[in-house]
Amino acid sequence: MVRRSSLQEIREQTYKDRDAWWTVLLVDPVAVRLVRLVSPYRRITPNLLTGVATLFGLGAAACFAMQDRWWLVAGALLFHVSFIVDCMDGKIARLNGTGSLFGTWFDFMFDRLRVFGCALALFGGQYARTGSSAYMWVLAVVVFLDLSRYLNSQQMAKVRQSMRDQLVEARGPVPPPGPDDPAAQVIPHGPRARVRHLLHSHRIRTHLVSGIEFEMAVFIVGPLTGWVIQTPIVAGALLLAFELFLVFRLWQATRAFPVALAREHAAAAVSAAAPAQPQDADRKLSPAPHR
């Protein structure tokens, strides 16, 4: 009989340390229970779940294309289901160790296919219904922001990882602080620090409007409320604001990086020279050998 992991075990092995608030609050509680049901069956692979999520996404697109109010609601619900299934594939990969490099590519490309298909159906359908060119402009903006957000995040991650690797190479690996380390017991001060601590304590990242929240606003909140144009405009503005803040922080980090790297090289040089000093002193104090 196949042992089924407990919910707590699945949470510990599959939850990310920080995630989007939409995922933490509205997706993970459902996804983790579905993962518990399907994880014993090794035929249900991450790539299979990605394909199922894509089918649900195409179903959402078909509903959006019908243009009617209740078809939009059905499309929004199907899109949310597709996102839940899409989150399951990563959890299954981490839980069963079945992830792959091809799976990473497969997941990214089919996610973009799902988003593009739903955007084309949603805004193209509303354009066909009303004849308003505003829907086509919003379509172009939604596709641009979705692609630019994910490409930008990948490039920023590469730059930050490169800086981390160079710093680690300069100073050597530093073990993470233990539970008794004073640095691990810092009490946050100030409203901003307290809000950050509160979010992190619930696994919610402070980047509150990311690509995930943007997609959910466009394809779920907009169709459910009927504000198909207004919601993407507001969500897009918030996404841009958060992205520009991240770019500004990256610019600050790259400006400070040469100084930090030089400091680490200097500290490493001093540390390497320190063990030799006592030996040199002992040689100076020892009596000269008799000839």
Structural notes for this entry:
It is a single chain. This protein has 10 helices and no strands. With 291 residues, the protein is mostly helical. The chain has a single domain, classed as Up-down Bundle (Four Helix Bundle (Hemerythrin (Met), subunit A)). The longest helix is centred in the last third of the chain and has 44 residues. The termini are far apart. About 2% of the residues have low confidence.
Secondary structure: elements and pairs:
Layout lengths: L6 H8 L6 H18 L7 H20 L3 H28 L4 H30 L3 H38 L19 H11 L9 H15 L4 H44 L2 H10 L6
Number of strands: 0
Termini gap: 83 Å
Helix/sheet category = mainly alpha
On the 0 to 100 scale, the average pLDDT is 87
Order of helices and strands: HHHHHHHHHH
Strand content: under 5%
Radius of gyration: 26 Å
Broad CATH class: Mainly Alpha
Number of helices: 10
The CATH architecture classification is: Up-down Bundle
Low-confidence stretches: 281-286
Reported for the largest beta sheet, the result is: none
Instruction: Name the CATH homologous superfamily.
Output: CDP-alcohol phosphotransferase transmembrane (TM) domain
CATH topology: Four Helix Bundle (Hemerythrin (Met), subunit A)
